[in-house]
């Protein structure tokens, strides 16, 4: 009987230890995910600061990938496209919202503006 009680106690301790390790791994995953998003935001900010006006839409998309948000309109026969890329965190909820992005404004596939003011002017002209 003593042997059986010791074996059950050891088994229970091992199972509880596994749970603690498992919980810790989940926390590590969240930290890894935060670090990854933070690193992407930093890369996007740095790359945007080096963008030259006149860069093509294709060049920017190949450098940044798919945008978090896209808007487009036709103004006086010119295509206006606004691509938004995540550059900073305002809410720690894991979702990307428009206020956590920097807009890149293209006219006829050429970069003509960067930032909220440029996007607002472009959309106002089209609205």
TrEMBL record:
Keyword Signal applies: yes
Gene3D superfamilies noted in UniProt: 3.30.1450.10
Domain of life, per lineage: Bacteria
Signal peptide extent: 1-23
Keywords: Signal
Keyword Signal set for record: yes
Protein name listed in UniProt: DUF3192 domain-containing protein
């Amino acid at each position: 009987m003593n042997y059986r009680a010791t074996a059950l106690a050891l088994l229970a301790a091992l199972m509880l230890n596994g749970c603690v390790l498992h919980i810790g791994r989940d926390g590590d995953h969240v930290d890894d995910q935060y670090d990854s998003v933070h690193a992407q935001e930093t890369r996007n900010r740095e790359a945007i600061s080096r963008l030259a006006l006149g860069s093509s839409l294709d060049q920017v998309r190949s450098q940044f990938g798919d945008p978090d948000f896209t808007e487009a309109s036709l103004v006086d026969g010119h295509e206006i496209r606004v691509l938004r890329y995540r550059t900073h965190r305002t809410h720690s909820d894991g979702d990307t919202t428009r206020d956590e992005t920097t807009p890149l404004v293209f006219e006829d596939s050429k970069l003509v503006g960067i930032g909220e003011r440029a996007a607002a002017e472009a959309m106002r002209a089209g609205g």
